[in-house]
Amino acid sequence: MNWTPNDQEVEAVLKLNSQERYTYWIKKVVDQHTIWSLWHPHGWALGEDDFKRILIPVWPHSKYAMIFAKDAWQGYKPKAISLDIWIHKWIPGIEKDQRLVAVFPASNDKGIVITSRCLEQDLEEELSLYE
């Protein structure tokens, strides 16, 4: 299933609080088997929280990611990561590098900041509903 949110959906979802966006993200990522982040030839976009921990921002669709390709991420482009690659390669790498994931940041907050293993559990739980 190839899904693209329309402008009204994008606007409405961006008004949700971080927990509601997290739930939306989990469902859409599992539906589409795709995670989106921002890429530049020098590497993936990274953020930082108030404790100086490195965050990897992710969105459920390129339209959401593109909105944030400005300021510090000017010149970055949305890039897809398959859910299988995310689970089998990214999660161990994020954990090894002691980074966190910022799930669905929006202009008003950093999204849900979570460990890669906790995120994996939530993804696996949602995936189990599809079996």
What would you say this structure looks like, in words?
With 131 residues, this protein is an alpha+beta fold. The protein has one domain (7-128): Uncharacterised protein PF11572, DUF3234 (Trna Endonuclease, Chain: A, domain 1). The chain has helices spanning 7-14, 18-32, 62-67, 83-96, 116-128; strands spanning 34-40, 43-44, 47-48, 54-58, 77-82, 100-103, 112-114. The strands form two sheets. The protein has a four-stranded mixed beta sheet. A three-stranded antiparallel beta sheet has the order 2-1-5. A hairpin with an 8-residue loop joins strand 6 and strand 7 (112-114). The radius of gyration is 14 Å and the shape is globular. The chain starts with 6 loop residues before the first helix and ends with a helix. The model has no long low-confidence stretch (mean pLDDT 95).
C-alpha Rg, in Å?
Answer: 14 Å
Cα separation of the termini: 16 Å
Number of strands: 7
Indicate the proportion of strand residues.
15-25%
What proportion of the residues is helical, as a percent range? 40-55%
Q: Helix tally?
A: 5
- Low-confidence parts lasting 5 or more residues at pLDDT below 50? none
Mean pLDDT: 95
Q: Sketch the major β-sheet.
A: 4 strands, mixed
Q: Helices and strands, in N-to-C order?
A: HHEEEEHEHEEH
CATH architecture: 3-Layer(aba) Sandwich
CATH superfamily: Uncharacterised protein PF11572, DUF3234
User: Strand arrangement, largest sheet?
Assistant: 3-4-6-7
What is the SS-derived class?
alpha+beta
In the CATH hierarchy, the third-tier topology is known as: Trna Endonuclease, Chain: A, domain 1
- The first-level CATH class is given as Alpha Beta
Task: Give the count of structural domains.
Answer: 1
| Apparent shape | globular
